[in-house]
Amino acid sequence: MFEDRPEGRGIKEKIHRMKENIFFSGRFLSIGIVFSVFGSGIALFSYFILENIPLSSVGIAFCILGCVLLIFPEYLVPHRVVRGMISGAVTNIEALLEEFSCNLRAVYLPSEKGKVYAFCPLPGNSSYPYPDAERIKNAPKRIISTVDGYPGLFIYPPGSDVVALSGVVEEKEEGEEGSYLEDVKQDGKDFSFENFLPQLENAIDYLLVDFSELASKVLVGFEKNRVFLQAKNIKLDVDAPRFTRVLGSPAVSLAACVIAQVTKMPVKVAEEKGEGKWIRAVFEVGGKVSG
């Protein structure tokens, strides 16, 4: 299993430490209030009633410590900043897709530099044959590039920067062990999402629920080469119909970036629909995705 490998354990432990930090940082406010009130009471009682200077100093120290905890930031990167960054990027990409009349599903691809990019096919052929992911990877990374004779846009989706900013997926340093996918290719093993599911579920849950607060709850599953996502109470509402049609909604696009970066494989949003408070999305993962 992937989670038994050193790289799997490392990411799982990293996410666990992040969630622990979030839990404890959320307690700073209440602890700060308790320390401030307790310290003020001790200092006033000791000075005016007991007339004990050393004990008054202890009370003042508690009060100062409480004030420090009160001003300690809960998150190094506030949720509103993350959501604002995503919203601004979605608006800019929406204008670009509108300019080129893009309406075909994009393919998310991981890069060796730690950021995910997306290939958005340009219109012109009603039966667009999605090319092999390796050919997309080898194509020149210009705004407009051609793969197998078909033009498309190369863009960096907002989720790419959010994944990099969160640090939830660490890039390998030179000389470290290869990825699970590389081992599969070398050993001739059968690829299985069972090796990625625990890590994918933790990473998507952390990014959508804790880091960006785009959703209140997420569920992740898989079947063959497909990943299924359910997210509840999406909090970012951006009017970007073309972005949603090509790249998926902002929350789904962020999840696609996570899947691509964790599995190191191409990802396409095959389906997305809203059902009440939930949105459900299906991602195709593999070397070649269907049109």
Structure description:
With 291 residues, the protein is of the alpha+beta class. The protein has 2 domains: 2-16 and 78-285, no CATH class; 27-71. The protein is 49% helix and 18% strand. It contains 10 helices and 8 strands. The strands form 2 sheets. Strands 1-2-4-3 form a 4-stranded antiparallel beta sheet. A 4-stranded antiparallel beta sheet has the order 5-6-8-7, with helices on one face. Helix 1 runs parallel beside helix 8 (197-211) and helix 6 (158-166) crosses helix 10 (250-263). The longest helix has 23 residues, at 28-50. It is elongated, with a radius of gyration of 24 Å. The relative contact order is 0.15. Residues 1-9, 18-25 and 172-180 have low confidence and may be disordered.
Which key phrases capture this entry?
alpha+beta, 4-stranded antiparallel sheet, 2 domains, 291 residues, 10 helices, 49% helix
**Got a strand count?**
8
User: What would the average pLDDT be, to the nearest integer?
Assistant: 77
Cα Rg? 24 Å
Count of spatially separate domains:
2
Question: What string gives the helices and strands in order?
Answer: HHHHEEHEEHHHEEHHEE
Strand content: 15-25%
By DSSP (H or I, 4+ residues per run), the number of helices equals 10
Shape: elongated
Described by strand count, sense and barrel closure, the largest sheet is:
4 strands, antiparallel
- Given as residue ranges, the uncertain stretches (5+ residues, pLDDT < 50) are 1-9, 18-25, 172-180
Helix content: 40-55%
Between the first and last Cα atoms, what is the distance in angstroms? 31 Å
Query: Strand pairing plus helix content: what structural class?
Result: alpha+beta
Order of adjacent strands in the largest pleated sheet:
1-2-4-3
